[in-house]
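[agent] plan:
  1. take the single chain provided in the ticket
  2. run structure prediction with default settings
  3. attach structure tokens to the ticket
  4. add a short note for the reviewer (M.T.)
[agent] executing step 1
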Amino acid sequence: MLEMILPLLGLTLAGTAVMSNDAVQTLGTFMASNKKTAWWKLWAAASTVLVSTVLYSWFVNNGDISFGRLDKIPHVTVQWYHALAPGVLLLLTRYGIPVSTTFLVLSAFASTVVFEKMLAKSMLGYAVSASVAYAFWMVLAKHLDEKKKVKQEHERAWRMAQWGTTGFLWFTWLSHDLANIAVFAPRQISPELLVGILILLVSVLAHVFYSQGGRIQQIVNEKSTTSYVRSATIIDAVYAFILLYLKQMNNIPMSTTWVFVGLLCGRELAIATRKNKKIKKVFPLVAKDFLKMMVGLSISVVLVLLVQEL
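[agent] step 2 finished; step 3 output follows
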């Protein structure tokens, strides 16, 4: 009986945690720049992409919804300490800490060697996103003042572009992070379990939009001009292409949280540099986000050691 309850519990906790914590990375700017739009319309659009992405992976990969991200993490019998990981993540999410679900969840299943590869790829992702963002916004800030409002005749075009870009980013992000949920399930998921997973994810996503992202949304709201439709579109596009590049590199899972935080940090530093602001005013914001990532990493390392002992 316990062998049936623990996987379902792990799936429920992981699905809730991933949607609540990590989804804001991709949908945060979408919510911030569409506050005048009814939440259920935003939810319906995001849910359509979510369901389509899961079904696509399920059909193409013979019942696997992780896009092959779990090739190096074989399915094992779920134990209580496996389900503990997403439970801890849910607790941290309540305090607005943008920890990595990849580290917290997959570290309980991955070997030490795979964990080291995950960490190395995530560090590379942070460095790449921060560097690309810094270079990109240094050039962009020279030619475009993002604080200026979009002209009325261009508003509709930017709005359409943002919805399309968000959909592409959402798909790209899901192809990375669905592995954090699917790790609790067999690698070939039955149609009945598939329906249950979809209902769970769509329901949690409804709560995310209804609560406007919760406390974790502050990571996005406190950054420069993220509530402007043009800025949100540009951020989403850059983030999507960075994730796509890292996705094609190999099938090793990585922390999309680190990539997202690196992107925002590089952007803030570039804007501050271009506007001749003192870096020390931006540094506390960057350092705070980095410190939160280190908290999540520390907990993940402890969890890996605990699992190895058990």
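[agent] step 4 note for reviewer: The chain has one domain: 2-309.
[agent] ticket updated
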